[in-house]
Amino acid sequence: LFLGDGMGLPTISAGRFFAGDRATGKPVKYSFEDWDFNTVARTYDLETMVTDSASSATAYLTGTKTRTGMLGVTGAIKVKQCVAYTDAEKTISIVKAAAKAGKATGILSTARITHASPGGAFGHSAFRDWESDKDIKKDCNGENCTCVDLAQQLALDNMDVNVILGGGQSKFYPNTKELPINPSMKGEREDGKDLPRMWLKAQLDKGRKAAYASTIKEFNEINPKQIDYFMGLLAPSHLPYVLDRTPGEPSLPDLTVKAIQILQKNPNGFFLFVEGGRIDHGHHDNTAKHALTELVEMEKAINVAVSMVDTRETLIIVTADHSHSFELVGQPSRFESLLLWDKGYGPKTTDNKSMLPLIYMNGPGAKINETRRNVSEISK
Known about the structure:
Elements: E1 2-4, H1 9-18, H2 53-62, H3 94-100, E2 104-112, H4 116-119, H5 133-137, H6 150-157, E3 163-167, E4 178-179, E5 182-186, H7 195-205, E6 210-213, H8 216-221, E7 229-233, H9 252-263, E8 270-276, H10 278-284, H11 288-308, E9 318-320, E10 326-328, E11 358-360
Parallel strand pairs: 1-8, 1-9, 2-3, 2-8, 3-7, 6-7
Antiparallel strand pairs: 4-5, 10-11
Helix pairs in contact: 1-11, 6-7, 9-11, 10-11
């Protein structure tokens, strides 16, 4: 299951021309658009017309609608209700169901691995931001706060997940310990727990072939043939945007290849969740170039996965969890970059300030009583 976070139809529409051939004006067609089956999904939860990534993850990974901001628990729980959830209040994710059926399982994200979308694959939390014990204390601090943070749930309560790859290293280390991925930073846990060490020890105690990668070098040195359980936490927080990545840092296709190489050894098959999480972050930051570049990278990961499996017996789904207030508008030229100003409608603006083809807006006029920025000087 490939999840493009925030990858609504406007993102795909803009992405076709963003990655297209400007010499001919021909847009690309993403490979997954040309598959035999295509449909659309309705995204709403128990409270809101537009889901956040947490309630949507609970829906598509567990088949249960819940409240906005909650993961892996039913609507019987209230938001930020920090209690020990009963089995009746917990939902069952496809990851746990697949593991119970004897399949290998993996969770992979370019965001923090405890973030909302991957969190839906393993976690039970009345608030998506409770990624560490420190996070819980911001909302609940006392004897009645008996819920467990998402990092601890993943490391200690989900031992049968074979592959865990993503960012968020700071959520797993105590605030007294330097982060291996960046020694200038320390962890944020206040309970003193070194969760990766505890995870690895527990796996080895079970007699399993397991490994943990705390740095890029360690990740690159991992031999998938020699291990069956693998955790890699490859950034203090989210993995860097594609455009900000330094040489040697693994791409989403790299992560996908490593995960499949480990998982496909299971003769009973596997389930893998792959999130292109930074598409969403690019939109939240109102930087379309980041969002669309992340989309291009996710398609590469999808193509790699298709090449590694037998599609006659492997179902691959590509979807999004919600869209954004992002649009491709006006009459931009097919022969120029979408990142430049619109030369179709642009010269017709009444204030002579031109316009952009990619916009982020909410409501009539988007901004009230503010002077519109002049974008005419963007490279012509």
